[in-house]
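Supplementary Methods. Inverse-folding protocol.

Structures were first reduced to a discrete structure-token string of length 175. This string, shown here, constituted the complete conditioning input.
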């Protein structure tokens, strides 16, 4: 018989906080055993822990002491120069940002029907624009916002291809 209070049984373990049986993937592994609390309970605990006044004041004191010592700033600057500001890291961040933007635009295009309302084109994501029907209500779509945050603004728009969009603004086409 094991002396472990919450053993793993059939790939599941009971959380000490919420008392639910969860898969072991929901627990952090510390050396040879799993933690007693599941990931979600630990996240709640640590969020509450960081809000305690004594923890906040200790963190503030540590930060003040750290900033007073000039060698810490030099080490931080050296790490930035060495690791964070390399061309490779910038290209990785840029690629991730472009992929995220494309996913969010695809959600918005799908939300508006996926095709141009003028000609029915829907072949290339980059060739589709959002046209505001009433320019006075326009607040502007935010490229760095998620689809959910832009949904109100999308409701004021129609989906058009680049060619139809140019024709609408030139006065050659109406929607």
């Amino acid at each position: 018989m094991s002396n472990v209070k919450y053993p793993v049984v059939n790939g599941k373990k009971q959380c000490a906080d919420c008392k639910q049986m969860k898969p072991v993937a929901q627990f952090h592994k510390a050396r040879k055993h799993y933690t007693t609390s599941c990931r979600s309970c630990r996240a709640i605990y640590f969020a509450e822990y960081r809000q305690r006044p004594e923890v906040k004041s200790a963190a503030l004191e540590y930060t003040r002491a750290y900033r007073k010592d000039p060698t810490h700033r030099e080490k931080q600057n050296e790490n930035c120069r060495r690791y964070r500001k390399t061309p490779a890291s910038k290209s990785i961040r840029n690629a991730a940002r472009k992929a995220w933007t494309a996913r969010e635009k695809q959600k918005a295009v799908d939300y508006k029907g996926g095709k141009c309302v003028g000609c029915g084109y829907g072949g290339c994501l980059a060739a589709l624009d959002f046209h505001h029907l009433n320019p006075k209500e326009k607040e502007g779509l935010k490229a760095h916002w998620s689809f959910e945050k832009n949904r109100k603004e999308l409701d004021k728009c129609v989906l058009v291809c680049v060619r139809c969009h140019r024709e609408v603004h030139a006065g050659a086409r109406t929607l």
